[in-house]
Amino acid sequence: SAAESSAAESSDAESSDDDSTADPSAKSEEVGAIDSSLKTGGDTFTVSSWNADDAEALIKQWESVSGKKAKFNNMSCAGGEAAEKYNNMFNAGDDIDLFFVEADWALKYINDDDATKPLSDIGFTDADYADLYDYTLEIGKSTSGVQKGLSWQAAAGGFCYREDLAEKYLNVTTPDDFQALVSDWDKFVDTAAKVKDASNGGTALTSTMGGVWQVFSAARKTPWVVDNKLQLDDECKKFIDLAKSMYDNGYVVKDLAQWSTDWYAAGQTDSTMGYFVSTWGFGNSILTQAAGGEGGATYGKWKVVVGPQPFYWGGTWATVATRCNNPELAKEFISFFTSDADTARAYAESKGEFVSNKKAMEGILADGTYAGEGVLGGQNQFEVLNDVAAQIDMAGGITEYDSTIKQAFNDAVTQYCQGAYDSVDATIDGFVDKVAGSLPELDYSDFE
After folding, report:
1. Residue 172 has pLDDT above 70, yes or no
2. Which of 50, 119, 276, 304 holds its CA 20 to 30 A away from the CA of 37?
């Protein structure tokens, strides 16, 4: 790929900290207001991420249009393991200009001025954010409200279902008719019961409670931590009851581990009717793999609807390292996929991914030239995701502890479903114990 080629060309370059100019005044007029603490003119523009899923496509497209080069530092790990590797990079003094973060742990770095720079320091202004979805901006802000990261994705999601099974067991033939059956959680459960009965227990409406939890967790209004105290809101308690009911009644495929080979394979049989999927899950990810790839057993048989409630799942934010020595290129790269509607649109159409620029998405939807992912058999997923993205509200809902706490909660509820806990209260106690073991610095007095 272009990213790999550029990385190879740059492999012998020494750290650009040694080759940059400490005084950016000569270039500040050319690129806008660059903070004087940032060096410029580094030999190598370095972009770091935990894997190549997004980074290689981003770099390749930017290089092909700009004629410039970026070195991709692929850490080849899961997103949840990236923080430790980033810490090692910072401690080792490695060259790093841009690095990517996930929503669940973004604040660890966005709140750390030793790690990340405000985007205003590399020339961004409020005008650059005017066309971006609000929730993507909220997640990229520090606790004090400073914009430090931007995402090229609006990772809106929906519920994807097998249209052939929906016709067979529910007698519905259009996404609108299916949406009416799953438009809130009560209807979702009622429809799951109908699917189970009509299939004689052979088909579950959805594949995992982990997917359901992604929807619930994104829609919560209460942060996990307020004034250093762990919080458990009514949505969490509602989820515990829902999960237990769906598990016991066979409305979800039992004991199917999300991200496992079996999880994907379920979509190629009649064992499940649907998956909750985010925008990044339509391409060579969740849904296509669940269909067995292009030409697979169920490829082209899927459709997507909004589902019980709007949600986002994941997403990646580009942040500027405090040690960045290529601020001009950093701003150009980030702008290319966010504030520039034309290039953001080109990325959306080439990757099949809903981007964070509203003008870009409105343009795609207005002219109708985008045909949608083949796995959907001609449906344009952007039309559904556009409805979802406009409804997502994450103001004040993000904390630096989200990744750890969300996983602990999901683990505790899974164990409750499987019989490890005998009551809701015991499940909550188990959840609190899990979090306290990982985050002893928090206050748990409300659970004593």
Report:
1. yes
2. 50
Strand 98-102 versus strand 46-49 pairing type:
parallel
Q: Provide long-range contacts, Cβ within 8 A and 24+ apart, for 165-171.
A: 165/195, 165/203, 165/270, 165/273, 166/273, 166/303, 168/198, 169/194, 169/195, 169/198, 169/199, 169/203, 169/273, 170/194, 170/195, 170/198
Q: What is the mean pLDDT of the chain?
A: 90
Q: Go through the chain and tell me how many residues it has.
A: 448
The dihedral sign for the CA sequence 369, 158, 376, 174: negative
CB atoms within 10 A of CB 188: 23
pTM above threshold 0.85: yes
CA dihedral 280, 376, 381, 334 (to 10 degrees): 30
CA-nearest of 356, 393, 385 to 219 is 393
pLDDT tens profile 353-383 = 999 999 999 999 999 889 899 999 999 999 9
Q: What is the pLDDT of residues 381-434, one digit of tens each?
A: 999 999 999 888 877 688 889 989 999 999 999 999 999 999 999 999 999 999
Could you tell me if 374 and 294 are in contact, meaning their C-beta atoms sit under 8 angstroms apart?
Answer: yes
Query: Could you read off the pLDDT of 234-271 as tens digits, one per residue?
Result: 999 999 999 999 999 999 999 898 999 999 999 999 99
Q: Report which secondary-structure segment, H or E, holds 285.
A: none
